[in-house]
Write a structure and sequence with these properties.
The protein is of the alpha+beta class. It contains 9 helices and 12 strands. The strands form 4 sheets. Strands 7, 8, 11 and 12 form a 4-stranded antiparallel sheet that branches. Strands 1-10-9 form a 3-stranded antiparallel sheet. Strand 11 and strand 12 form a beta hairpin. It is elongated. The two termini are about 40 Å apart. InterPro entries: RNA_pol_sigma-70-like (IPR039425), RNA_pol_sigma-70_dom (IPR014284), RNA_pol_sigma70_r2 (IPR007627), RNA_pol_sigma70_r4_t2 (IPR013249), RNA_pol_sigma_r2 (IPR013325), RNA_pol_sigma_r3/r4-like (IPR013324), WH-like_DNA-bd_sf (IPR036388). It comes from Paenibacillus vulneris. Keywords: Sigma factor, Transcription, Transcription regulation. Pfam families: Sigma70_r2, Sigma70_r4_2.
């Protein structure tokens, strides 16, 4: 999308030029349809929501800050309209003569210019579509738009830490299906390289610490128990925060809520996604969205709570990829 050319048409649209709306629609429709199509499964609903998005674009254009990326601003409208549709508390607006003004209705596609070509990538799209909405939306904006966690948090109006935890939970669910396929070049839209680290948290006698949580003082939505046995992390409602939060088993006081992170030999934190089970024992998966991990790095640990026990556990462990074995 040519930003300079876009500015010209935005100016014309603000003067009431209907042709400008058609041009802007043509420049942005692929990403808009692709994004809505991955968030909403019914094709007729997709078309209705997209029509409403462009109507709201026209209404909200005078408030658009030209110093900010247009596509980011437009995605704010996309999210609001999808959320309105999901709550089913809005009356869907259909543009008059939408067929003649906006042309044919395109097929729902993934955002971006490249289409899914391989069978593996088609299967990946289907798997992403099966994720819960809150996880699906962060995957789209993190890996297809390449937005930062801060941008995702701003779009969704959630804390940055919540955006990160949802991305990591989404990666964990995707790993259940693609555990042996994440290294393939076919998956370059999302993952490129990964490192797996096995861990276990034990008591002094060598037994695993119990998988349990302290939920006192929290507005618990789901305690994560089945027949009295803890099977998953509890979820709770934070005051003033939209949606739900997941109570971690391995807690940290770090602002990003991540107890494990990688740094290079200079101490700079690496930009990676983390998929982990958040259990007394499991595997940490550090993955990138395109760049290769350095041959030597450090795994850093910063923990102040394990289950119901508070304390301080910090450490740094070297990772030398030359000594690693490739997962089969």
């Amino acid at each position: 999308m040519n930003e300079q050319n876009l500015e010209h048409w935005l100016d014309r649209l603000m003067t009431g030029d209907e042709e400008a709306l058609e041009v802007i629609y043509g420049m942005t429709r692929k990403k808009v349809y692709g994004t809505v199509g991955m968030l909403v499964r019914n094709k007729q609903d997709v078309n209705d929501i997209v029509n409403e998005i462009y109507y709201q674009l026209w209404r909200a254009l005078p408030s658009y800050d030209r110093r900010r990326p247009f596509l980011f601003w437009l995605n704010g409208i996309v999210i609001r309209q999808v959320n309105h549709w999901r709550r089913q508390s809005w009356r869907r607006f259909r543009l008059i003569e939408k067929h003649s003004r906006l042309g044919e209705e395109p097929q729902v596609e993934l955002p971006g210019e490249a289409l899914i070509e391989s069978e593996f990538q088609r299967e990946l799209q289907e798997t992403i579509n099966q994720l819960p909405y809150k996880l699906r939306i962060v995957v789209i904006y993190r890996f297809y738009y390449d937005y930062t966690y801060e941008q995702i948090a701003e779009l969704l109006q959630i804390p940055t830490g919540t955006a990160k935890s949802r991305v990591h939970l989404a990666l964990k669910q995707l790993r259940k299906r693609f555990d042996t396929e994440l290294d393939g070049e076919e998956y370059q839209h999302v993952f490129f390289k990964k490192i797996l680290v096995h861990y276990s948290i034990t008591k002094a006698d060598g037994s695993l610490v119990p998988y349990e949580f302290d939920t006192k003082g929290r507005n618990v939505l789901n305690d994560g128990k089945k027949n009295g046995i803890q099977v998953e992390n509890p979820t709770y409602q934070e005051p003033g925060v939209e949606g739900f939060s997941v109570l971690s088993f391995i807690g940290t006081s770090k602002p990003d809520r991540l107890p494990f992170y990688l740094t290079d030999t200079q101490g700079k934190e690496l930009d990676v996604g983390i998929a982990e089970k958040d259990r007394p024992e499991g595997v940490l998966a550090f993955v990138t969205s395109g760049s290769k991990l350095p041959p030597f790095m450090y795994l850093n640990v910063s923990i102040d709570r394990i289950g119901t026990t508070k304390g301080s556990w910090k450490g740094q462990f070297p990772i030398d990829q030359s000594n690693m074995t490739q997962a089969k």
